[in-house]
Amino acid sequence: MTEAETEVIKTQKRRRDPEKTREAILEVSAKMLATDGPEGLSVSKVAQIVGVNRGTAYHHFQTREQLLNATMDWVSEKLYRETFGDINLHEEESVLGSRARQVAENLAKFAMEYPEYGRVWLVSMLNSDSPEKDPYWSRYKALMDYFVQSDMAEPGVDGEVHAMLMVVGAILWPIWMRASKCSDAQRRSLEKRFTNEVLRFNLNGTLRKDKFIDIDLLTSKAK
What we know:
Layout: H1 3-16, H2 18-36, H3 43-50, H4 54-60, H5 64-84, H6 93-98, H7 100-113, H8 115-127, H9 135-148, H10 159-176, H11 184-203, H12 213-222
Helix pairs in contact: 1-2, 2-3, 2-5, 2-8, 3-4, 5-7, 5-8, 5-9, 7-8, 7-10, 7-11, 8-10, 9-10, 10-11, 11-12
C-alpha cells in the first residue's frame, strides 16, 4: 500500500469518527499556535493539514475564536492528564508523598516530548485575565497548597510561588537546551537531569527529608 493510499484511509476513518477528527484538528491547531501564534491560526488551514474538508472542520468549530479557545483547553487538559494521571488530591499524605518523584518525572517528560504544547500553555496563561481558572494550573496549585500545609513540607513554603517555579522551569528547560535538535537518548538524559535537580532542590528547601527517604536515596544514586 502506498503512502497516499494510507493517508486516504486515515482520512476516511477520521470522517467516520467525529471524536477522532476533533482530536486531530486540535492537535494540529496546537502545533500551529506554537509556531505561528494565534494570528496564524485558521479553521480552513487546519482542515487542510488534517486532511478533512472545511465543512467538516467548521462543523466542529464554527469560528477561529472557538478553535483557539478549544485548543487552549485541550492543551491544558493534556498537560493535566500527563502530569497527574490518577493522583487524587484527597489521598493520604503518605501516598501523595510517595508520588512526589512521579509528578516531577511526568511533568519533565511531558515538557520534553511536547515542547510546543508547553509554549502554547505558557503563552495562554500569560495572556489570560483569569489564570486561576485554568484546569492544569488550578490542579497543580491545589496539590501544592495541600502539600505545604502538611507535615511533609518545611514551614514557610509559599505554595503558589513554588508551583510557578516548578511548572515554568519544566516548560522552559527543553526550549533552553534546544531539545528538539537532540537525539532521543539525549532528551531522556535532559529529562532525568531536570527531574533530579528539582528533587535535590526540594529536598534542600521544601521537602522534609525524613518524610522522603526513598527520594533522597534515588536522587543520590542518580548523581
